[in-house]
Amino acid sequence: MSENIEKVSDIKAKKPKIPRQAMPQQDHIERRSNFNEVPLGYTPEMAVLEASRCIMCKKPKCIEGCPVEIDIPAFIKLIKEGQFEASARKIKEQNALPAICGRVCPQEEQCEIKCVVGIKQEPVAIGRLERFAADYEREKGKILLPDLPAPTGKKIAVVGSGPAGLTVAGELRLRGHEVTIFEALHKPGGVLIYGIPEFRLPKAIVMAEVDYVQQLGVKLVCNAVIGRYATVDDLLVDFDAVFLGTGAGLPYFMKIPGENLNGVYSANEYLTRSNLMKAYRFPEYDTPIAKSKKVAVLGGGNVAMDSARTAVRLGAEKVYIVYRRSKKEMPARIEEVERAEEEGVEFHLLENPLEILGDKDGWVRAMTNIRNELGEPDASGRRRPVPIPGSEYEMEVDTVVVAIGNGANPLVPATTPGLDTNKWGNIIADKETGATSKPGVYAGGDIVIGAATVILAMGAGKQAARAMHKYVMEKGSGL
User: Fold this and answer.
1) What span, in angstroms and rounded, lies between the C-alpha atoms of 317 and 413?
2) Which of 11, 124, 390, 416 is deepest in the core (most CB within 10 A)?
């Protein structure tokens, strides 16, 4: 294999154009009936070939697009040279969760969109290379822990073990602080565990990344609902600072007739049952989930795609995405939409549900939809859907999954005097530091900006960690 890598690494970017390397994946028919990961990852030879497409810009724009500031050309150069373990360690200088980010982050909207190669060709597959390096290091058992500085004697509490919380914890541990994460659920990982399906983000990958953070010395307390187990003020008695990374776990609904019928789920519940509670393996695991025949998923984001593709794997005969705009306006990643289509999900675009209809026993039997046309752009910049009078029709379904977004869980703000929130219930925090209105309390991720991406939450975590380090080191020093 090393001989092959050496041969491939001799290829120069100035030679005939090398096409972007497609990632092998499960056959679309086969994967409909299993929860195994769909993309299979690059081989070493493919990774080296893809890495050779990078032209090593003197002023790389890709780094500007990375919320966690990874030195992208440096880690790609190491892959090109066949130094895979060193590449993973280069990434981890800025990102403790590379195997996760390489799978679920929208690189096409961040680092890759700024790739200079992408001006005339497809951009370098930065995310796929990040995944390759992280997977190689883990699978070869070559994970090394960085040297830790001397203890500072400062103690930090982190509420929530999602991407923002894990990032803050890792960053502050690397600065010598004692860090404890408090997680409400019985397993760590936050949305990475309960929200993203196994076929897109294997839970073994999440647990390996969490384990890395724990190996750094971060303590983890599960089944600890802050606001009930203890309040933020309680934590401030024992800790020098607190970070709130509780996410956006309060589901939104359509507020249409019939949403209280049996067979209507929030995407949160539907995915949590399957992902965290392993309902797809019932009765081996205790949690059951509806075995539906015809499922309608309302929404056009990644969560809607995850829900629809989960329904396919749970054996539904028909799965529909009902989205009020056209495909062009869908916020989901293009590759997730394409995979859903490959797996047989039917897209009912430019449609809106008006009512969910039930049978005599209170179970969903159908849904009344109305067709739309696109009008002028609204506040989001996307063209506004306008209902077409008289276009109503009835869609036969037995399950409806509402995937139109989530808001902030009110528990922590409600039990924390002096913590300011906005009209949507999100915690108000400084954009640069994550500092809240309450001294010593910082926040970041979805609890601040609303439901967004994993990498944006991690970026907020890095910013907050810098500010918290400065705060606790100056605390009591008279500065």
Assistant:
1) 43
2) 124
Give the integer Cα–Cα distance in Å for 75 and 111.
Answer: 14
Token pair in block for residue 271: 């995915």
295 by Cβ neighbours in 10 Å (0-12 / 13-18 / 19+) ranks as buried
Question: Are the C-beta atoms of residues 399 and 265 closer than 8 Å to each other?
Answer: yes
**Residue showing tokens 């020093």:** 477
Structure tokens at 288: 């059951």
List the one residue out of 375, 37, 351 whose CA is nearest residue 200.
37
Cβ neighbors of 99 (< 8 A, separation 6 or more) are 131, 134, 135, 138, 205, 208, 209
Looking at residue 201, its amino acid is L
Query: CA 91, CA 131: separation in Å to the nearest integer?
Result: 10
Residues β-bridged to residue 393: 369
Q: What is the total residue count of the chain?
A: 479
Q: What CA–CA distance (Å, rounded) separates 115 from 397?
A: 44
Q: How far apart are CA 334 and CA 121, in angstroms?
A: 18
Residue at 475: amino acid letter? K
Average pLDDT by consecutive 10-residue portion of the chain (479 residues)? 46 64 96 95 97 93 93 97 96 92 92 94 96 96 88 97 95 97 94 92 94 95 96 97 93 96 95 81 75 95 96 95 95 95 98 97 98 90 92 98 92 95 94 96 93 87 96 77
Q: Is residue 132 within 8 Å of residue 24, measured between CB atoms?
A: no
Instruction: Give the integer Cα–Cα distance in Å for 451 and 247.
Output: 7
Virtual CA dihedral for 16, 19, 21, 24, nearest 10 degrees?
-120
**In 275-392, beta strands by DSSP E:** 294-298, 318-323, 346-349, 351-358, 364-377, 383-387
Torsion angle, alpha carbons of 395, 400, 406, 412, to 10: 150
Residues 146 and 174: beta-carbon distance below 8 Å: yes
Structural tokens at position 200: 């897109």
Q: Contact, 256 vs 370, CB < 8 A?
A: no
Q: What is the pTM of this model?
A: 0.89
Token pair 């063209």 in the structure block, residue: 383
